């Protein structure tokens, strides 16, 4: 926290009782009552578990104790919890009736009661008990000398059954430890589905023992062994998370076809299939009329399915641009002969051959919305992803799916890779508005999924692109649909973001690593100040339509230290809005404070850049901002007339594409101040 | 970097050529010449490999490109290097005559020549080539707008063959990703032996398929599967690092005996063996007269040996306090019958039974120095660890071992867990001084090993306890014994420490995580300032003789954010020393600057503590320091007479044990100023 002038600094010192709106819970529980009592923590705090839970709840309770101890430094006497009924007098009692089946059909409800002497968790399943433990973690408060839980009564359950996060392993491979810490983050936010996008044009990431060529030729050395996959699935299961694997077919096939070109649809013999090193939609597509295609997929499914207990298997099916199919005479002839009018029909023919291959392993097919055609099996779950970027109404596939008898999951509006605001994700609801659904239809909207497409993320930056925004999405999927207040969400999200660090997420700590590298270790304050008002180019702009970044290009640049929801921009924009209405002194002071900070920032960046070439790309923006800021300060402080030409010039430059790949999130506010 | 007053701030802006003493290489090469030319980097920079190397050099070269790209943002065109002779015109040519055998007997030499148009690496083996790549990484410089390598000619080789790091997995388990990033750190510092201490009183960490009870009953759920071990060994091999496993016997046996109490030496049937949750020397010892002991160990070795290609197997053998043996009549009788006078003799009997078990797997025994008795096989490598803390001359076992025909490795003086200064480690040399060794005897001193005992480290803090001090130890083990200048080492170590971040080490970034937690997210500057003048209690003081911390106690406290070699204390102490000699104005200004900072720091800590109980333990120290500082400032600035009684009172309090478990590293300087 920067040291703010006195008018902005306040220190919250209070021994008063906590009120409900001071709780930083996320997702917000369905029902919560708070009273004036507190439960004080000391080193004799103990946990006891009763009932018939899966042993995973012992691990969860042990980890809870460790997290609590790390936050309080109380040196609890209790070490490892390994069985039920060990301490019947313990002040935290966790009662689970039975083991829960990880997935989307289980009872995840819980009751949490905190009283002066006792804390009680009651849950039908251990899944609900683990959710209760996470809520309890979030309830920890202190009064300066002691730690305590406020006395609450919570009854909670999820609104949607499918509360997911997808991670794309193909564009940038994420090692196991990255996955595990994000599973921890998901569990902390009561999310229960991990969609593992394991294959794409840029890489094949699964060991297939019968077909070692896939990893030998199409993984660039980065893939998971089957042991690693089992380990991750087990880890997820212990956190109450179901893992849904995806092998994206028939498009997105550059990797598969690098290993097995004979099942590709390309007829041009001059270029070979190769693992792609760029983003975008690629042409390589599996040949749907070649029996070898189905043989290979069948053998792959035979090895992959047993690794995943989940009853769902995602077959992808998106963005098949049909180019290779259209220019393949055999395929064209096949379409004619079999009355498959369009490529969509041919793809449905293809998909329907996969359905029994997976069904024999107990798997129900799921796919991106393009699989939804007239003849596609109603058992398939439709993954709705398209919206305005694809020229369609946001999530219109949800309505179509539901009306046509399909279950569906919404990802449009939860594309966290696009660097959009947390507000946009938070207000995006899987249940379409202004549509009449019957109860049966409503039930087909299973939930939603945040999608971490990894064209522009590495293990160093991925946590910062997932968190904390995905916590807000988690609330949208769990909490009541009346929980929509943006200010409350922002306030709570700030605290939740900090708490996510303690479970190992690197979304906060890695920023300084990037800045230290950029600054060539000379000092990062100026750069850090700048990241707080810049946001990476949104949607697909940063990658210049897939042209700028190779999959191995550096992602340790200024844009990688920036994020959506630039925090100082948020405050500055609010102050400017207030000021333009009220012209009040407090807001004016805040505005001047920031402007002066940015003038200093520019001076410092210029000095440091002499020994740090990576600072160069941000210098023009910093200078343009400083020039405008000087004018605005003089005007606000001394009523000096604005040099509007100079300001407009610099605003124009700020509006052009820069090589730092970031936009100035205070741009509109500067414009308004300069009018 | 804090913003220092003008007299302390200097900006190094130079287009002048780099001089040798401006290079930040570590370990310092055997021979290096520098000239005035430079090799400029651009996006067409390419690497070509020739010769007959192991494919690991392709990976190393690819990673080198990625690291370079991340530091320069140049967007290299070259992606993955997968074979030799791909770009004969490339400006970086790496020539390896042959594959190197990972271990301590291989040629690790290299020549590195940087010219204006070309960089050439020549090495007998790919191991030498990979060392050269690390040196080249360290040579990167910039002139504000461009990146370049200065023109150098380097001929380099290691002084010692055994340059190791040991990590203790038993006291605090470290997951695979922690191990891998530390292997990366080792490779960056040209270290080649990873000693894996896999078993101790506090846990058994290896999957043994024939004896699942070991992990089921004695691991608290934390252990490595054999697949994971193979993966780590493979990873290390690709970095030129040999992994030496250790199963510590016959003492340190609480874990083994929890699973197999029948082979313990205890005759008291009232207490059961259990996995220990405390530090220290424990009684549980294997029964050396029970044939089942040897059967179990033999079966364990049969499973573990094949996982490790290394020809060395460490059997521990330290700190057998003999208590259980002394009170076991059967064992006493056995000693009498077999003329084994002392417990040392009995232990030698025990060790000599292990030798053939390991030899049949091609393993040579290594053990802590206590195994060195008259009848111990000369093939055993003696690991010298005892010194003044054990009431002996530092590393005296080295001399004894060498004179008695044993090969030996030194760890005394490299115990990085004791929080001693980097200077003490740096000046500690495996080759004893003032002893006459023949050439053959000298050759028996294989090298040294930093030992990361993990009683007080977790995955969150372990990197900060290993790095950067181990880099200085790496230099001691690689470079010429004339490379001993402390000032040069400190200067280079500062830069090397930053560079270690880019390969994934968390020694810098995790400190702020700890401080944020302590500060309850209110702002960490004051705490950070305080960590820069405090050091954790040294040697075994922090743990209060093993009494204070359970193995599951929190290590997220102020002492865990502190480290050896507190940086501001280093500067302040130097300034005070200069001032006391010269009474110069510059030093006086620096002293006053720091004192005022600490007065402010105390005020801020008091304010923040109102919402952060974890700050409480440091408040007394901060106040005592502030009281003294106020007096000193008034005296230095205004010549006000010192209130010596008040100062002495507070110095006395500062000297007492505090609950924050840290000592004030500027204590002596304050004393001197107050005289």
UniProtKB/TrEMBL annotation, chains A, B:
Kindly give the InterPro entries that the UniProt entry links to this protein. Answer: Beta_hexosaminidase_sua/sub, GH, Glyco_hydro_20_cat, Hex-like_dom2, HEX_bac_N
Q: Which SUPFAM superfamilies match?
A: (Trans)glycosidases (SSF51445), beta-N-acetylhexosaminidase-like domain (SSF55545)
Beta-hexosaminidase bacterial type N-terminal domain residues are: 23-156
- Has keyword Hydrolase? yes
Q: Name one Pfam family in it.
A: Glyco_hydro_20
Q: Which residues form a coiled coil?
A: none
Hydrolase keyword on record: yes
Keywords of this protein's UniProt record, alphabetized? Glycosidase, Hydrolase
> What range(s) does the Glycoside hydrolase family 20 catalytic domain occupy?
160-480
Family from the record: Belongs to the glycosyl hydrolase 20 family.
Q: What is this protein called?
A: Beta-N-acetylhexosaminidase
């Amino acid at each position: 926290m920067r040291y703010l002038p006195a008018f902005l600094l306040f220190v919250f010192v209070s021994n008063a009782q906590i009120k409900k709106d001071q709780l930083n819970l996320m997702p917000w529980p369905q029902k919560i009552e708070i009273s004036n009592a507190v439960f004080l923590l000391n080193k004799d705090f103990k946990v006891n578990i009763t009932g018939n839970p899966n042993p995973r709840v012992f691990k969860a309770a042990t980890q809870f104790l460790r997290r609590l101890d790390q936050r309080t430094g109380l040196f609890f006497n209790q070490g490892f919890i390994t069985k039920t009924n060990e301490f019947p007098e313990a002040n935290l009692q966790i009662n689970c009736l039975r083991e829960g089946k990880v997935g989307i059909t289980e009872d995840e409800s819980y009751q949490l009661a905190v009283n002066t002497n006792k804390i009680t968790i009651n849950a039908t399943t251990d899944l609900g008990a683990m959710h209760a433990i996470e809520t309890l973690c979030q309830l920890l408060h202190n009064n300066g000398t002691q730690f305590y839980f406020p006395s609450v009564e919570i009854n909670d359950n999820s609104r949607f059954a499918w509360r997911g996060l997808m991670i794309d392993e193909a564009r940038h491979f994420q090692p196991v430890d990255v996955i595990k810490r994000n599973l921890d983050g998901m569990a902390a936010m009561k999310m229960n589905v991990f969609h593992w996008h394991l294959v794409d044009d840029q890489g094949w990431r699964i060991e297939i023992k019968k077909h070692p060529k896939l990893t030998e030729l199409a993984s660039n050395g980065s893939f998971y062994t089957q042991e690693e996959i089992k380990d991750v699935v087990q880890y997820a299961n212990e956190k109450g998370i179901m893992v849904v694997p995806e092998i994206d077919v028939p498009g997105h096939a550059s990797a598969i076809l690098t290993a097995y070109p004979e099942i590709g649809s390309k007829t041009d013999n001059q270029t070979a299939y190769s693992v792609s090193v760029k983003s975008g939609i690629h042409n390589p597509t599996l040949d749907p009329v070649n029996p070898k295609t189905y043989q290979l997929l069948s053998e792959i499914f035979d090895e992959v399915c047993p690794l995943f207990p989940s009853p769902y298997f995602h077959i992808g099916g998106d963005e098949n641009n049909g180019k290779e199919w259209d220019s393949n005479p055999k395929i064209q002839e096949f379409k004619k002969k079999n009355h498959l009018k369009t490529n969509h029909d041919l793809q449905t023919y293809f998909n329907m051959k996969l359905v029994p291959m997976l069904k024999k392993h107990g798997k129900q097919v799921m796919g991106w919305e393009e699989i939804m055609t007239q003849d596609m099996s109603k058992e398939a779950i439709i993954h709705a992803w398209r919206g305005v970027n694809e020229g369609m109404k946001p999530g219109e596939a949800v309505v179509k799916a539901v009306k046509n008898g399909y279950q569906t999951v919404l990802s449009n509006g939860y594309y966290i890779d696009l660097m959009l605001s947390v507000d946009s994700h938070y207000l995006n609801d899987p249940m379409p508005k202004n549509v009449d659904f019957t109860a049966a239809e409503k039930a087909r909207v299973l939930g939603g999924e945040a999608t971490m497409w990894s064209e522009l993320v590495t293990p160093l930056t991925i946590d910062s692109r997932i968190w904390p925004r995905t916590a807000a999405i988690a609330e949208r999927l769990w909490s009541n649909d009346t929980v929509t207040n943006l200010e409350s969400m922002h306030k709570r999200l700030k605290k939740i973001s900090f708490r996510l660090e303690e479970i190992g997420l690197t979304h906060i700590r890695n920023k300084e690593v990037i800045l230290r590298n950029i600054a060539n270790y000379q000092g990062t304050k100026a750069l850090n100040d700048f990241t707080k008002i810049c946001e990476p180019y949104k949607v697909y702009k940063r990658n210049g339509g897939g042209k700028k970044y190779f999959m191995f290009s550096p992602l340790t640049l200024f844009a990688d230290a920036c994020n959506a929801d630039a925090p100082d921009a948020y405050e500055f924009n609010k102050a400017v809005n207030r000021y333009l209405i009220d012209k009040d002194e407090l807001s004016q002071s805040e505005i001047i404070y920031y402007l002066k900070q940015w003038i200093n920032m520019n001076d410092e960046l210029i000095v440091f850049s002499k020994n740090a070439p990576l600072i160069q790309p941000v210098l023009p923006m910093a200078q343009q901002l400083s020039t405008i800021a000087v004018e605005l300060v003089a005007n606000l402080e001394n009523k000096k007339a604005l040099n509007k030409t100079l300001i407009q010039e610099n605003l124009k430059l700020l509006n052009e594409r820069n090589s730092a790949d970031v936009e100035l999130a205070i741009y509109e506010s500067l414009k308004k101040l300069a009018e």
